[in-house]
Design a protein that fits this description.
The protein has 393 residues and is an all-alpha fold. The chain has helices at residues 14-30, 50-73, 75-110, 115-119, 124-127, 129-137, 148-157, 159-168, 170-187, 203-223, 225-228, 231-252, 254-257, 262-268, 278-294, 308-315, 317-337, 342-369. It is globular.
Length: 393
């Protein structure tokens, strides 16, 4: 079939690094319970949050990186490179899983606090450790806060045929993703979890944002320019974002929520995150369109030094994400020991972000060390194989 997708321009898009970095910061803050600093994250001001941004950018980046490879070297090579990345994600998940549950177990024993085992959903390891660990390795058992990475692994694992179709029939592939999304919501499809229940992030519905990111990267943004730049979207989109802010605040503050009709309040509270409610998707799409409209790829502000920590965290996203998940548990435990004062909340939040930034800078530095050092050019008229006259004297 003829290629119909529009490949992104070559060169790094700092917007992706910036927003992926800030998504990692927000996820870290959101995973610290009873932390007033996480009021700085978008989940408190609208229907979508950092998880939506993370999944969208993951789809955008995957298509950005692997589309040209698949076209140049074929479906098999492109797929194996994608699955190599899936393997890296899986190994990272297993390491994080083992360290995470070991840390929780150590804290529970050291401080005689068995409640923390139930709080982080690792009680099954005490009663049935072998089966629970086995289920963890096949992604069915997940302690609290370890939901995003398994979702990412599944979405990337099934992405090769989706990308192949997206390159040839992008709009049709996007419609297929929508059809799967609505079918999953209609029939309640989800992956089963261990020991009971289902996945917190339903892959059948969350794939929509991942595929939307791929579609947006491979020509969707260009196709949508008339909508993105339209005056009616600016007005209607702004009104919808304000409405989302009001409904989210209604869910946060009981007295404020009581001012609205029950049918209206119940339509948006609690926010349906597992099945990715349509109002949540619409909220994110409007934000994506607004960012595309007002933050251009060549915006010089992205090169400001103040944004460099965020961009570095985006460039080393996997390491920063994994460390952030672990640090959120450490921060939660510190707050339990310090009675959760405001200064303790501020300290663990800023300290965690500083550590994540340090991890990103180290990862960036380490990657540069793996590249061969450029050798100086020999003097004019002298080749590298020829010794200088002075060498033989």
């Amino acid at each position: 079939m003829e290629i119909q997708a529009t490949l992104p321009e070559k060169g790094r898009d700092l917007r992706l690094d910036f927003f992926r970095g800030i998504a990692n910061w927000w996820i870290f803050l959101d995973h610290i319970p009873y932390n007033v600093i996480n009021w700085a994250t978008p989940r408190n001001y609208g229907f979508s949050d950092a998880a939506d941004l993370f999944v969208f950018i993951s789809g955008y980046t995957a298509s950005f990186v692997y589309a040209r490879l698949m076209l140049d070297r074929g479906f098999v090579v492109g797929s194996t490179r994608l699955w190599k990345r899936v393997w890296q994600l899986y190994v990272a998940h297993v390491l994080l899983f083992v360290i995470y549950i070991a840390a929780i177990g150590w804290v529970a024993l050291r401080y005689n606090d068995p409640d923390i085992i139930n709080e982080f959903n690792v009680a099954g390891l005490v009663d049935n450790p072998i089966q629970t660990l086995t289920q963890g390795l096949i992604l069915r058992f997940k302690p609290v806060n370890l939901d995003v990475l398994p979702l990412y692994i599944i979405l990337m694992g099934f992405f090769p045929p989706v990308l192949w179709m997206m390159l040839r029939k992008p709009d049709l592939t996007m419609l297929g993703s929508l059809a799967l999304y609505f079918a999953a919501r209609q029939f309640g499809w989800n992956f089963s979890a261990y020991p009971t229940g289902s996945w917190y992030f339903n892959p059948y519905t969350w794939q929509l944002l991942f595929v939307f990111g791929a579609w947006f990267a491979l020509g969707g943004a260009r196709e949508s320019q008339s909508v993105i730049k339209s005056k009616w979207l600016l007005i209607a989109g702004t009104l919808y974002l304000l409405f989302a802010l009001v409904m989210t605040m209604a869910g946060r503050f009981e007295t404020f929520g009581a001012m609205f009709p029950r049918w209206l309040y119940d339509a948006f509270n609690p926010n349906d995150k597992t099945f990715l409610a349509p109002y949540r998707v619409l909220h994110f799409v409007i934000i994506a369109f607004f960012v595309t409209r007002f933050v251009h790829k060549d915006w010089k502000g992205l090169e400001w030094k103040i944004f460099d920590p965020l961009i570095k965290c985006g460039q080393q996203s996997l390491q920063v994400f994994c460390v952030g998940i672990f640090l959120s548990f450490v921060a939660h435990f510190i707050l339990l020991l310090s009675w959760g004062s405001f200064w303790a909340q501020l300290g663990v939040s800023l300290g965690g972000i500083a550590i994540l930034t340090g991890v990103a800078y180290y990862g960036n530095w380490s990657k540069r060390q793996d590249k061969p050092t450029a050798k100086p050019m020999p003097p004019k008229g002298q080749t590298a194989a020829q010794p200088s006259p002075a060498a033989g004297s």
